[in-house]
Amino acid sequence: MPSSRPLRADARRNRESLLTAAREAFLAGDADAHVEEIARRAGVAVGTLYRHFETRDALVEAVYRQEVDELCAAPAQLLAQHTPDEALRRFLLLLVDHAAVGKGMGVALESIMATDSPIFEDARTEMAFALDELLTAAAATGTVRDDVSGRTLLRALGGICGMRFEGWKDEAVHITSVLFDGLRYRDTAAG
After folding, report:
1. Is residue 174 part of a domain?
2. Residue 191 lies in a domain
3. DSSP codes of every residue in 127-154
């Protein structure tokens, strides 16, 4: 089991190389990539892989966790560079990209879906929180409605991104644009 002690620089580089190699293999559709192949691609020995990740499932989970962490760090950067409504729009598109990554990793992720790992619920909670941050900022400027939660918006995107057909991503981007337009609509009759 990995310790909570900070990793030495070489160990940190090895861990990052392993995560990168695994991510590339999974996204390329090589979901069945063996740990030996991932270690080879990372330029390390198999023993090094197992020092960082006890099981292949632990490696898959770490790759997914890294994807979610990077995604959920985006709102602060987006808000620093764009108006709140534009930051929200861009984050919605990042969520579509994240779904594409998830589809690329789908087979690899199936192995941890069968466990009682809390990773997916944790990820949904973090993504909903990131959406809440952006929705609050945009609602404060009056550019989006203030009656939609991050969790609700995430559920809507889940339906959009759950489509399974050729060209789904282009369609998801278009539907996400329609969804964003709906967020900008305020019901004036209500009040």
Report:
1. yes
2. no
3. HHHHHHHHHHHHHHTTSS-SS--HHHHH
